[in-house]
């Protein structure tokens, strides 16, 4: 199959296109693009290098072969040339590439994004044996599990700092001793359980449809979770903190725990919608999914409600309001996507998740 790869401005990215087997997948195409860009950049770089150092062009061929294999070797050292070649080899690796089908001129619709697990044949018109795709560089990528791990690690570490080291409040001008209330201890256990659960779900429960997310999301999401985590921890563990009544605290934590368990069960149900190597979206069913489309978000919001009933801080309520508005938007988008797929028979392969 002949594949023409263009940039968004319509310029041909790979001169002469690529020839791939009829059974090739989108991942095969991305790897072929990576290889060709690497060869081009590598050749250009080594040509410049050879011209500068006045060494033979054979050196360039050896170097290109070498860098193509570099990941498989254990290379150490900081030789400038090798480092540059290695950097080139990292550029435009498959998960950095977003491939879409070109839109007909004048069309305002959303373009179809090629899914990395699918066969190229699925995107070919009729019996044609050629395909044109538009390439976009998504920038440096990280695995979803890495992104989630780091965003949840912050709250998991920062919160106990305020509980176990009350001296930090001296930095904020509070000199007196702190008396720890039971509500503060339960809040610590509740909070730690929540983020520990999320990390475990990330590694052992979720079946993500996309392997990676832009590196910039790590900084954005960490800023969100780490800042809110520290802010809430600061107020709940404050020496001047006034606990709610014993009854209110117990009702809040009990309700919140019930919602955390329900949230875990919702994630198990979502996992069962996909095989280990599958993507795609199914209509979730069973348990609270029989009532709402995104029962996982509903239970997540309610478990924060339980935490806030039990601890009653402004910081906790602000976090809940922000999280609820984010999840409501995502839930509405996910509901629309399922309606499009199952009621209107249209495919929508765009990622709706906000990467958080
Ligand atoms: N506090 C906050 O601000 C906040 C914000 C958002 C989320 N959260 C929490 O973080 C958890 C994870 O959220 P998330 O948005 O990353 O993931 P999610 O929507 O809860 O989904 C979890 C996993 O199930 C998959 N999935 C979802 N709907 C599916 C469907 N209809 N068919 C097949 N698979 C489906 C997702 O796949 P994909 O990879 O395709 O998405 C993902 O791998 C949430 O449940 C919530 O507890 C908190």
From TrEMBL:
Record field: transmembrane: 223-241, 253-270, 313-332
Membrane topology: Multi-pass membrane protein
Keyword annotations: Lipid biosynthesis, Lipid metabolism, Membrane, Oxidoreductase, Transmembrane, Transmembrane helix
One Pfam family from the record: Steroid_dh
Domain of life, source organism: Eukaryota
PROSITE patterns named in the record: S5A_REDUCTASE
Domain 3-oxo-5-alpha-steroid 4-dehydrogenase C-terminal stretches: 212-341
UniProt similarity note: Belongs to the steroid 5-alpha reductase family.
Protein name: 3-oxo-5-alpha-steroid 4-dehydrogenase C-terminal domain-containing protein
């Amino acid at each position: 199959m002949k594949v023409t790869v263009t940039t968004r401005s319509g310029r041909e990215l790979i001169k002469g296109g690529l020839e791939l087997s009829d059974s090739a997948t989108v991942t095969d195409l991305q790897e072929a693009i990576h290889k060709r860009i690497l060869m081009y950049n590598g050749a250009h770089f080594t040509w410049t290098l050879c011209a500068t150092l006045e060494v033979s062009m054979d050196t360039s061929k050896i170097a290109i072969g070498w860098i193509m294999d570099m990941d498989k070797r254990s290379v150490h050292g900081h030789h400038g040339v090798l480092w540059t070649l290695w950097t080139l080899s990292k550029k435009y690796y498959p998960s950095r590439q977003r491939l879409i089908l070109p839109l007909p001129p004048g069309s305002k619709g959303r373009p179809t994004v090629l899914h990395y697990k699918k066969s190229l044949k699925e995107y070919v018109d009729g019996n044609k044996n050629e395909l044109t795709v538009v390439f976009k560089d998504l920038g440096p990528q990280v695995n979803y599990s890495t992104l989630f791990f780091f965003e949840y690690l912050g709250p998991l570490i920062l919160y106990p700092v305020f509980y176990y080291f009350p001296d930090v409040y001296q930095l904020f001008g509070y000199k007196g001793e702190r008396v720890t209330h039971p509500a503060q201890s339960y809040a610590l256990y509740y909070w730690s359980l929540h983020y520990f659960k999320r990390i475990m779900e990330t590694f052992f429960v979720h079946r993500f449809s996309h392997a990676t997310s832009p590196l910039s999301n790590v900084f954005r999401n960490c800023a969100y979770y780490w800042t809110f985590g520290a802010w809430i921890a600061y107020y709940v563990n404050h020496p001047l903190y006034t606990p709610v009544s014993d009854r209110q605290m117990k009702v809040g934590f009990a309700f919140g725990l019930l919602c955390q368990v329900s949230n875990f069960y919702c994630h198990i149900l979502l996992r069962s919608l996909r095989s280990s190597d599958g993507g795609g979206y199914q209509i979730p069913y069973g348990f609270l999914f029989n009532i709402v489309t995104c029962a996982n978000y509903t239970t997540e919001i309610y478990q924060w409600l339980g935490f806030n009933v039990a601890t009653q801080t402004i910081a906790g309520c602000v976090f809940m309001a922000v999280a609820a508005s984010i999840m409501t938007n995502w839930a509405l988008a996910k509901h629309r996507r399922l309606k499009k797929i199952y009621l209107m028979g249209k495919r929508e392969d765009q990622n709706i998740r906000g990467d958080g």
